[in-house]
Amino acid sequence: MADLLSFLKTILEAGFSIMSALEKAGHNADDCRRIGQLLQTLSAIANAKYLEDNTTKGLKETLQRASEIVKTCNRKTLVSRAFKANQIADELRGVCIDILLNLNTVLLANVADIKKTVTHTNSMLAQILEICAANPDVRLLRQKV
Questions:
Q1: Fewer CB within 10 Å: C terminus or N terminus of the chain?
Q2: pLDDT 10s per residue in the chain (145 long)?
Q3: What is the largest CA-CA distance in the chain?
Q4: Would you kindly state where each structural domain of the chain is located, as residue ranges?
């Protein structure tokens, strides 16, 4: 009787392990789909003309790696995805973190560039105001709109 219970317990544990792997594989497939859709938008951002190449290099490399992971994930069968569910989940999680880090780098570079532009604009405005204050007799012509 004890052997039968031990056997049933082993069968049930194996069944739960398989169900868990299949569930994780299903989640991985959903994640692959969502990341694949996001890659198009992120690629457009990485290739934007107004961004400097040195700030987007890491993002472009990460997006390429993410694209390869998504392609591999989509090619695999459900059984293959189930057996490698943890590995695939780790790869997807890792590439998502890399994408976030690289996006933050691009955003910070843009903020720094905007700050530099605003500082330059403020400096020019200050110079114009100094000229106007030094020459109160000068009247600025207004353009008719």
A1: C
A2: 667 667 666 766 676 676 666 667 677 777 777 888 888 888 887 777 767 777 788 888 888 888 888 888 777 776 777 777 788 888 888 888 888 888 888 888 888 888 888 999 999 999 888 888 888 776 666 666 5
A3: 110
A4: 2-129
Give the contacts of 78 (CB within 8 A, at least 6 positions apart): 22, 25
Question: Tokens 């400096």 appear where?
Answer: 123
Whether the full predicted model's pTM is greater than 0.85, yes or no, is: no
Give the residue from 33, 71, 63, 34 showing the smallest Cα distance to 46. 63
Query: Cα separation of 137 and 143, whole Å?
Result: 19
Give the C-alpha separation, 85 to 72, whole Å: 13
3-state helix, strand, coil in the chain (%, to 5): 85, 0, 15
Q: Count CB neighbours of 61 within 10 A.
A: 13
DSSP annotation of 144: P
